Amino acid sequence: MINFPYYSSLLRSSVVTANVIILLSLLLSCGKQQPSENQQFSITDDLGNVIELQKKPEKIISLAPNITEAIFSIGADSLLIGVTSYCNYPVEAKTKTVIGGMLDPNIEIITSLKPDLILLTVEGNSQASYQALMNAGFKIFITNPRDLSGIKKMLRDFGKICRKENNSQSVINKIDSSEKSFLEITDKINPKPEALILVSINPLITVNKTTYINQVINLSGFKNIYEDEPMPYPTINYEDVILKNPDYVILTSELTDEKGNYLKELGKYLNTTNAFRNNKIISVNADLISRPGPRIIQAIESLISSHN
């Protein structure tokens, strides 16, 4: 005979256990949720300033292309109400209100947009612009990504500001995965070909090891012949370049033109170097190599493919 009281008791016990499990699951899931969008929070920028925010900013202005690209990459572009005239990627960035240039943003336009937060970068925006915006009473967050870890911090910070932590971590994970793949490729390149990196031709200007561009070059399997210069963007001369005799010349696309006039000028002075004798001249998209942001992956891919 079936003992109904026993099974009834067992059923009640099972229901209680199930309810406890459900309750614990709910509590745990709540612990993993992102902070409420209306919750007050603070965040420290790259200059050490603590910015207090009453809630998630709903109107953000970006004063640099790499900032704009980062905001789009984490899916927070709906919060962007203003960008600079240099913010051309992705194409949707061009639909945002243009507030002027990086060095000369229009304070009147910015004021009319009533932003909750303005995002600036150390390399690109001027001290005068920063001071003018501070005097106008705007909340400002300053970022200074000078290498891969700086880019990831910027993405992490923007994720917190925009309440897109999961999205920003996803972008960071992709960068980490790509970096690992790049290193597996470039570690096999030995010795590393020596390269002259040019960001200007008149005058002749290169970069040292403290710059973002230098890290892109290194991760791509090249050695910067001017990495040990004391200045970040030193002016150099053709005589010294000839003595160093680079295997490659890497220059940004903005330094080339359809007629190749700039290359002709370089070749006139550097035709005895290995780079010109072996036609190892690489032109890289200026936006890719000069903007410390999520497209660093594409910049490195472009340069790695140039090895032959």
Folded structure, characterized:
With 308 residues, the protein is α/β, with parallel strands linked by helices. The protein has two domains: 41-176, Rossmann fold (3-Layer(aba) Sandwich); 189-304, 3-Layer(aba) Sandwich (Rossmann fold), CATH 3.40.50. Helices cover 43% and strands 14% of the residues. It contains twelve helices and eleven strands. The chain has helices at residues 4-32, 65-73, 107-113, 127-135, 148-161, 165-186, 212-219, 238-244, 261-270, 274-277, 286-290, 296-304, and strands at 41-44, 50-53, 60-62, 80-83, 97-98, 117-121, 140-143, 194-198, 223-224, 248-252, 281-284. The strands form three sheets. It has a five-stranded parallel sheet with strand order 5-4-3-6-7, with helices on both faces. The longest helix has 29 residues, at 4-32. The radius of gyration is 26 Å and the shape is globular. The model is unreliable at 1-18 and 20-33 (pLDDT under 50).
Chart the SSEs and their pairings.
Blueprint: H1 4-32, E1 41-44, E2 50-53, E3 60-62, H2 65-73, E4 80-83, E5 97-98, H3 107-113, E6 117-121, H4 127-135, E7 140-143, H5 148-161, H6 165-186, E8 194-198, H7 212-219, E9 223-224, H8 238-244, E10 248-252, H9 261-270, H10 274-277, E11 281-284, H11 286-290, H12 296-304
Parallel strand pairs: 3-4, 3-6, 4-5, 6-7, 8-9, 8-10, 10-11
Antiparallel strand pairs: 1-2
Helix pairs in contact: 5-6, 6-12
List keywords for this structure.
11 strands, alpha/beta, Rossmann fold, 43% helix, globular, 4-stranded parallel sheet, disordered N terminus, 308 residues, 12 helices, 5-stranded parallel sheet
